[in-house]
Amino acid sequence: MLFHMPARLYFGSGEISNLKLIINEYLRAENPILVTDQGIVQSGLLKKVLPQLPGIKIFDEIEANPKSDTINKIAGKMRRLNPDLVIGFGGGSPIDAGKALALLGTNDGDIEAYEGKEKYKNNPLPFLAIPTTCGTGSEVTWVSVITDVNRKFKMSIKGPKMYPAVSIVDPDLIKTLPPSIIASTGLDALTHAVEAYLSKPATLITDTHAVKAVELISGAIKGAYDDIENHHTDREDMMFGSTIAGFAFGNSDVTAVHCISESIGALYDIPHGVANSIFLPHVLSYNLPECFEKMATLARQTGIDKVDDMKASKAFIQVIIDLSKHLGIPLFKDLKIEKDQFEMIARMSFENNSTPSNPRKLEQKDFLQILENAYK
Ligand SMILES: [Fe+2]
Q1: pTM here?
Q2: Pick from 228, 237, 254: which is nearest to 327 by CA?
């Protein structure tokens, strides 16, 4: 059994105020750059970091589902600055973009050349992750997911040197997060935990984190969605749950839900967490015959007390459907994806590297059936 999570993790409300100290005394960086997006700029959250980093160069043009051409363009400018640290500040997109830029800070060429595992020649620059949503998990994983714009495909760029050197997880940073983002990122984190637990490479260590994450996230997500500002414990539980769900899937894998959501995200720019929320119950229904005993363990973390495992698992799937509805997640139909595209989505999902990790064997036709079930 192997468990790997080398990032130094600072967790706690108010931790962001130690940013300067961490950079100066632990990372000993003198020329950092900061990668973020327009949502963060408009949210005012930069006020928490910029006074600590006067004069820092900011790249704030990262989009949702970050694109290879954006990364390559920023890399050209970034290399001229010769940074010694990359800071990713925001949701999963700026953090994944920051990891990719840290790699390009020490390796030539475009990001497309580094798709896959350990394709870098030189160790990436040190990377500091500061999540501002409760879902990515990217602050504790070794992977950066970047959309190749030419192939319309989400590439995974990963390797043991791509873990953040430091992650600062401060639940106060999600205090002003809009409810729709709490819903989509929180359900992404829940999906990470559920898939990590049910995936074939799961271990006792990943199971321990995944089960606790399901308990924390399912217990806190409604309170966080309804009033994040005044629900301090829910904020902490969401951030902690999201982080340990990252420990879990980063050391086991995701399953068919992410295979579909990554395909749809690359083709149609659908928010990642929304796509996961839509397909999670349908993939769980498909997987029921193979893993209903394990699924029942997760069900019991959400307060379902049925003794029969199959009944508990079915009730768990219904809880997820009801939760998505409560949190305003759209239906698959609402995404306006034409049905004649389903074949292509099924093919792309089938070809995803995580398909073999799904607990029940999947063929392309099974993905097609899941898409059709979700569309009904
Ligand atoms: Fe995800």
Answers
A1: 0.95
A2: 228
Ligand 1 midpoint to CA 96 (Å): 12
| Structural domains of the chain in order of their starting residue, each with its CATH number | 8-173 (3.40.50.1970), 179-375 (1.20.1090.10)
Buried b (16+ CB within 10 A) or exposed e, 277-310: bbbbbbbbbbbbeebbebbbbbbbbbebeeeebe
**Direct distance between the N- and C-terminal alpha carbons of the chain, in angstroms, rounded to an integer:** 41
CA 212 to CA 167: how far, in whole Å?
A: 20
Distance from residue 54's CA to the centre of ligand 1 (Å): 33
126-185 per-position pLDDT tens digit:
999 999 999 889 999 999 999 999 998 889 999 999 999 999 999 999 999 999 999 999
| Separation of CA 273 and ligand 1 centre (Å) | 7
Mean pLDDT of 286-291: 97
Ligand 1 centre distance from Cα of residue 185 (Å)? 8
Alpha carbon of 189 to ligand 1 centroid (Å): 7
Please determine, for residue 269, whether its predicted confidence score (pLDDT) is greater than 90.
no
Mean pLDDT of the residues in the chain: 96
* The length of the chain, given as a count of residues: 376
Centre of ligand 1 to C-alpha 307, Å, is 31
Ligand 1 centre to CA of 188 (Å) is 5
